[in-house]
Design a protein that fits this description.
- Chain A: Keywords: Calcium, Hydrolase, Metal-binding, Zymogen.
- Chain A: Belongs to the peptidase S45 family.
- Chain A: Pfam families: Penicil_amidase.
- Chain A: Its cofactor is Ca(2+).
- The complex is a heterodimer of chains A (812) and B (119).
- Chain A is an alpha+beta fold and 812 residues long.
- Chain A has a domain of 133 residues: Aminohydrolase, alpha-helical knob region (Penicillin amidase (Acylase) alpha subunit, N-terminal domain, Orthogonal Bundle).
- Helix content of chain A is 33%, strand content 16%.
- Chain A is built from 24 helices and 26 strands.
- Chain A has an eleven-stranded mixed beta sheet with strand order 1-26-2-3-6-7-8-9-17-18-20. In chain A, strands 4, 5, 21, 22, 23, 24 and 25 form a seven-stranded antiparallel beta sheet that branches. In chain A, strands 15-16-10-19 form a four-stranded mixed beta sheet, with no helix packed on it.
- In chain A, β7 and β8 form a beta hairpin.
- The longest helix of chain A is centred in the N-terminal third of the chain and has 28 residues.
- Chain A starts with a helix and ends with a strand.
- Chain B has 119 residues and is mostly helical.
- In chain B, α1 packs antiparallel against α2 and α4 packs across α5.
- Chain B is elongated, with a radius of gyration of 16 Å.
- The two termini of chain B are 20 Å apart.
- Classes of the chains: A alpha+beta (812), B mainly alpha (119).
- Chains A and B meet through α1 and α2 of A and α3, α4 and α5 of B.
Chain lengths: 812, 119
């Protein structure tokens, strides 16, 4: 009996230990429960926040001593004796605050998520490899090594990250490592390059080639041209229309092949970043400001996540003293200011990714035809480790003269497509590269320095705004832009003809740019770069409303103060509503409307076109507009059921309502009677009113809830995001807050005798969910408030502010 | 009763020290060895280890928490109140210790009576 009891107890104990030690026990997504809950090294060790204390540390990788001062928001102010040491310290500190974010971002970009998350990430990883992300990052790192400075910076940063990782005990691993049950691995320069490619993928990979090809094939050329004009006549481009182009453009050979018949693709498109991934920046000259000094504003819009995409930092060396936001994984400051200038960025919407159809020469698909000659593909075998599999998955990616064949299918109805993308080219920026651009901006003292710094920047192309204490303001649509003939890259191209290739790149001194325009301000909001007088052809996805509104507002403003710029960044007024509401109301047949419908119309007519969180007309307008859009373009929506398509732009839709309300396009395919704009818009209104009935009658329900903004955790781990945030804003308002997308950093810099700056981002300095600094700035951001940024000139000054100080001494 | 308290205090102290640098399961063999050496009866061993384990894990978790982490963990686990997360943590520690203690005590009981009895 005693034996039996003992054996039972022993078995139960072993079973308990076994169960608590399992990763993903019994099919769940849980980490090993024993080590996870163990307060001595598990998750409870991640209750951080009170851990920052003044310290002295000895670090082998430093040449000279470095002092880092953390202010009350835990912003590091790095004081270093040389630039390499500064980037070493930046790497060390960024890792301390954001190690998991850095790790997972590099994995996501390079296709290594299945290694830690298992099978369900495999398709995503395969696609990243097929898109050549890792290949491109390797090429970028090769190129960086040609530039001694850039090589040294990345290596110092990498060393800093790795020295931090090395002294970590497992108990100190960031929470997500414990949740996902894996350990940090060393940082590498390739990972910094991957972070760049990650930004390129987010910002300059969007294209409509497949959708446009299919839509044109289905609608026919005439209808396509009618629905998709390339230029919005109301556009207010980034470079003012007064600009004249004082250079001789490179001549471009005309199109020799014009085989439009081949343009029919059944492929499902690969997932794309959202369109018009927005951002605003502007700089006003002293002539327009209250105290005569320029003011620069920038709010880049990105996916909103926790940890935040941005890490705030000040870096002081004998060469420069710069402050701003950095990307966790990349040395230097991406958006910011120094003692002389300020700079900021918005994304350029130009299409720099084209697809080429491959004509195979053999059934095995190892050779393809180019100008009638057989060319072998170069196969690069990607090894993907998958959690739970013993053998890595091998993905053979075929490379052509165009780039990797991303779409390859055994099904003969599909055509195999190769990807030509500027972000695959690494050597464009010689003698230095993207990395050098940011550091050279940090060093810049005036317009000439800024302009020179930008010439080495390739991708993702950005509208770099500039202002200096000398009083200059400027903007440059900057990056590596292919030389394209008209409509090149609008549709899938014939990859069997080398004449279809890009004919080079626009010289860096011929990109659209302007210094000190007469109107006293420069601005950009992802709209078209120029008017149609610019000698080079370009296409892309361009915003049609924010830029026009910004130019209208700034044009009318005088004696501008910093507070005016803050109000403008938080402006919820929409030009799309200003033009869209009358267009819809003007075509509404109001006979026989019920009480609720009449109420909606009354409210909509009285609406001020502001997407405030408590607005009700805001969600009626957006719902009605999209319902009318759907009914009008029902031909295209029907097509979308089995293929990739592209949709007309809203500005064109509104224009058609005014200009051509009896056009065939308004006729619905599913009814025998012919419809016009009035029928479709009325029908859309009735449907919308019905579907919104309950919401409209609920006194507490408003635009804020309809929009449903929240900031989720990067890996969508529940409980680690903000949950619902009650906040106004709209994709087409300057304050472009959407569901999980919006202003990721709001910055305003006044370039007076003293530089003064304000900023806020929706998150916090710390990437640790157990820290009070993980999301401490969200509320301020939500309310449209700013922090005054502590821009110190010496360590003494910052220490005097009563901050925590680290003294890092070199080990050698 | 003295044995019970001695065991309880010993487990708390040794458990704390060893857990600082050894993995989560170390509390189980410590409880087993202590129960074996002190010859606790199974019921006593179970009770004393359970309480010691609960206190060690739960207490240390409460000590470490900053009011933010426990809330996030609760939200992560489907909106549990943070108090329940402490309870869960304590239970894991308590169970690990209790199973060790009872196994050690039962193991001692099956040893031939002569071997240890006269020491």
């Amino acid at each position: 009996m005693r034996y039996i009891k003992f054996v039972i107890a022993l078995v139960l104990t072993v079973l308990l230990l076994f169960t608590l030690g399992l990763n993903h026990p019994y099919g769940s997504s849980l980490p090993p429960i024993g080590s996870f809950f163990n307060p001595f090294s598990g998750i409870w060790q991640n209750a951080v926040g009170h851990e920052l204390a003044s310290e002295e540390m000895s670090l082998e990788g430093l040449k000279e001593p470095v002092q880092v001062v953390f202010d009350e928001r835990q912003i590091p102010h790095i004081f270093a004796g040389n630039t390499e040491d500064a980037f070493y310290a930046q790497g060390y500190i960024t890792a301390k605050f954001r190690l998991w974010q850095m790790d997972v971002s590099a994995r996501a970009a390079g296709g290594r998520l299945s290694e830690i998350m298992g099978e369900n990430m495999l398709e995503r990883d395969r696609l990243q490899r097929r898109k050549g992300m890792l290949w491109a990052a390797e090429k970028a790192w090769e190129a960086w090594q040609q530039s001694p400075e850039e090589k040294a910076w990345v290596e110092a940063y990498t060393q800093g990250v790795n020295d931090y990782i090395e002294q970590l005990s497992p108990a100190e691993y960031p929470m997500e490592f414990k949740l996902l049950n894996y350990t940090p691995e060393p940082w590498t320069p390739i990972k910094s390059a991957l972070f760049f490619k990650n930004m390129a993928e987010m910002l300059c990979a969007r294209n409509e080639d497949l959708g446009a090809s299919n839509t044109m094939a289905a609608l026919g050329r005439n209808m396509f041209d009618f629905l998709f004009p390339e230029n919005n006549p109301r556009q207010s481009p980034i470079i003012p229309t007064t600009k004249t182009w004082d250079f001789t453009p490179i001549a471009i050979a005309p199109d020799t092949v014009s085989d439009r018949e081949m343009l029919s693709y059944s492929h499902r498109g690969i997932p794309q970043p959202p369109p018009f991934i927005g951002s605003n920046n502007w700089a006003v000259a002293g002539s327009k400001t209250a105290d005569g000094h320029p003011i620069l504003s920038n709010d880049p819009h990105l996916s909103l996540t926790l940890p935040s995409i941005w890490f705030e930092v000040q870096i002081h060396t004998p060469e420069f003293n710069a402050y701003g936001v950095a990307l966790p994984g990349i040395p230097g400051i991406a958006i910011g200011f120094n003692e002389h200038i300020a700079w900021g960025e918005t994304n350029v919407g130009q299409d720099v990714l084209d697809w080429y159809r491959i004509l195979w020469a053999d059934d095995d698909r190892t050779e393809y035809l180019l100008d009638g000659e057989r060319q072998p593909v170069v196969t690069r075998t990607e090894k993907i480790d998958v959690l739970g599999r013993n053998q890595p998955v091998l993905e053979a990616v075929k490379y052509t003269v165009w780039g990797p064949i991303v779409y390859e299918s055994d099904d003969s109805q599909y055509q195999d497509l190769a990807m030509r993308w500027v972000a695959h080219d690494a050597d464009a920026g010689a003698p230095s590269h993207e990395l050098g651009t940011f550091v050279n901006l940090m060093r810049s003292k005036n317009y000439e320095d800024y302009s020179r710094a930008l010439t080495t920047f390739s991708t993702p192309p950005q509208n770099f705004v500039f202002a200096s204490r000398e009083g200059d303001i400027a903007i440059k649509v900057n990056g590596q832009f292919p030389l394209k003939r008209k409509e090149q890259g609008r549709f899938v191209q014939d990859g069997s003809s080398s004449a279809q290739a890009w004919q080079g790149f626009i010289p860096k001194d011929q990109v659209p740019q302007i210094l000190n325009p007469e109107r006293g301000f420069v601005s950009s909001a992802n709209q078209r770069s120029t008017d149609t007088t610019y000698p080079y052809y370009y296409l892309g996805g361009f915003d049609d409303y924010r830029g026009r509104l910004i130019n209208r507002l700034l044009g009318n403003m005088e004696k501008i103060r910093v507070e005016d710029m803050m109000a403008m960044q938080n402006n919820n007024y929409s030009l799309k509503a200003e033009e869209g509401v009358p267009a819809l109301l003007g075509q509404l047949d109001q006979t026989g409307l019920g009480e609720l419908e009449r109420q909606m119309i009354t409210d909509l007519s009285a609406w001020d076109f502001r997407f405030e969180e408590d607005s009700k007309p805001a969600f009626v307008f957006t719902s009605w507009l999209s319902a009318a859009f759907r009914l009008t373009f029902d031909e295209i929506f029907a097509l979308a059921e089995n293929q990739e398509v592209t949709y007309p732009e809203t500005w064109r839709f509104l224009e058609l309502i005014y200009q051509d309300p009896y056009h065939d396009i308004f006729d619905r395919q599913d009814t025998p009677e012919p419809e016009n704009a009035r029928d479709v818009i009325t029908q859309a209104f009735l449907e919308t009113a019905e579907s919104l009935r309950e919401k409209y009658e609920d006194a507490d329900y408003s635009w804020g809830e309809f929009k449903g903004t929240e900031i989720p955790h990067m890996a969508r781990i529940p409980g680690l995001g903000t949950g619902y945030l009650s906040v106004g804003g709209y994709a087409d308002a300057i304050n472009a807050i959407k569901g999980t997308h919006g202003p990721s950093w709001r910055m305003i810099v006044k370039l007076g005798s003293e530089i003064e700056a304000w900023g806020v981002f929706p998150g916090g300095q710390s990437g640790h969910p157990g820290s009070p600094f993980y999301d401490n700035a969200v509320e301020k951001w939500r309310k449209g408030e700013y922090y005054k940024l502590n821009f110190y000139h010496s360590p003494d000054e910052s220490e005097a502010a009563g901050a925590v100080s680290w003294k890092m001494a070199g080990g050698g | 009763m003295v044995k019970f308290l001695l065991f309880f205090a010993g487990l708390l102290v040794l458990g704390f020290i060893f857990q600082l640098f050894l993995p989560w399961w170390i509390i189980t063999p410590i409880a087993a060895i202590l129960a074996w050496l002190l010859r606790l009866n199974p019921r006593q061993a179970f009770t004393a280890s359970l309480i010691a384990g609960l206190l060690l894990w739960g207490g240390y978790a409460i000590y470490l928490d900053n009011g933010i982490l426990s809330n996030r963990l609760g939200a992560m686990m489907g909106g549990l109140p943070s108090a329940l997360i402490f309870v869960l943590t304590s239970l894991v520690g308590g169970l690990l210790a209790a199973m060790g203690g009872v196994t050690g005590s039962l193991g001692r009981e099956i040893m031939p009576a002569s071997s240890g009895e006269k020491v």
